[in-house]
Amino acid sequence: MKGQRWLVALTAVTATLIAASGFFGDRKGRQGVDVVAFGELPAQEGGRVKPIDTLARNALLMIRSKQTVRADGRTLSASEWLLDAMFRPQLADTYAIFVVDDPDVLGLMGMPQSAERYYSFDKLRDHTGKLQSQASAARRVDPKQRTRFQAAVVHLFDRLYLYYRIKHTLQIEGGAGLSDELARAHTQAGQERAQAIAELAYFRVLPPTAKGGWRNIGEGLAALHAGTPQPGLELYAAMQKAYVAGDGANFDAAVAKMLALGRAADPTALGIAAHELQFNRAQPFYNGMVLYVAALLVLFASWAWRPQTLRPVAYVLLAAGLLLHTGGLVSRTILQGRPPVTNLYSSAVFVGWGAAVLGAVLERLYRNGFGAVVAAASGFVSLIVAHHLAADGDTMEMMRAVLDSNFWLATHVITITIGYSGTFVAGAIAAGWAIRRHALRSLDPEAGKALASMTYGIQCFALLFSFAGTVLGGIWADQSWGRFWGWDPKENGALLIVLWIAIVLHARWGGYIRERGLMAMSIAGMAITAFSWFGVNMLGVGLHSYGFTDKAFSALAAFMGLCLLLLGLSLAPPRFRLVRTLAAGLPVQHGAATPHG
Q: What is the pTM of this model?
């Protein structure tokens, strides 16, 4: 018992270290500068003020699908990459950050196919004219009708243009730097250059003044020419000069002055930016995934060996993962000033969180390990989905006008996504039941009843929230569009979920289906929910078409295929066994048909 307590305590310490791992890295980057402090500098892009660290992460994720770059034998963070792109663009041009793996795009540029997937701007520079021409032609084709080549060339050119805009944040390409632009500011040539920078710059870094809001460097140069002081220009020029010279002390001093200038101009925005920087460094969702996976592995091991020792360890890991998941949700809510679900990305985070909470509640009631597995698996899978949805850029973008209502976001959207969580948990339990009956040599009838009881209860929960969420959505639609129901694809998807769960519950209550039928229909319910959640967004039609996406089609198709496989397993008689020796380690113990008090 004493050894078990030590093991649990050691697990808790390890989980804490994992949760805090983002704060252990060295603050100093190349050239001896404080990269973390630079990342805290405010910038306005996409209609909101954010730390430069967020902007760098989002931009690099869009360009490279990763938030780091390998260069000169070391890994650069997103902020270090942005430093080079802004202050030493000639060096950044040599970094292999552009993904080019389409054979026709490579052929267009006269490049041979190879194992190399990443190319630098220098290698692509001479081909930008051809890429722009092909991308312009492809844009005249409806996105849903584009060929693979057309989609690939548009994707590549968009990334090249994004990088080109970032390069022109401080200066025109080939210029001597921002100090040179400042020296030219009061000349005609300088004004023309300032106009070019103003049109190209990707983000604004100069805080608001009494005579205007946030400005980019080009707009600041124009304002300076008109007689409006812009102290931020001198500070960014000092940063560039110090960074190029490897003068970390002067660079850090200029950053500190810029932060003070920003706090004086817009203290609220700077406070939010500082909070967002800490959120980025903490990486709660990534570290939560690590803890969820660790909990899953320990839970699986506990079914075969020493469950009394390993299961408490798994519970600690699961609790730590869920705490990080919850903390990430709360932080995003505070940063946005909105309810937790505002877009497809945040819906994935929230649905997974709801499923993890439901799984934890089931584990508390039944204490059999199965609820914990559902919680850990749901949390992990949902965060993986969210990670891939983040590749489009800022996940805390400004709200679309049609969604700009905190009341309805907090009622309709939250309610219906909790319903999604319920249907996925019910389907996950049913999937586990189907795998279990084919994997084990003998089946415990009481164990099957326990899983059926869990599934039925969760389906009732899901129906309550799905129905309430659908009705609330109709009321919102009536207020926004003047009609309660219009057979819009998203509305039809929500109705499908409600009707399907109602059919499942009525069929079970009426005796038309029993344990196996309940599980099979619950698995089908997962597929229906996935279609309503993601599938209708791929149609690109209706009043909800602002949520259009076509990037999850392959993943959705794979998930549908998995559901069909699990459905087949649930209906097939258990004539074969994958494992013949785990009867003693059943995930649901004999006699666990009712929850513990």
A: 0.89
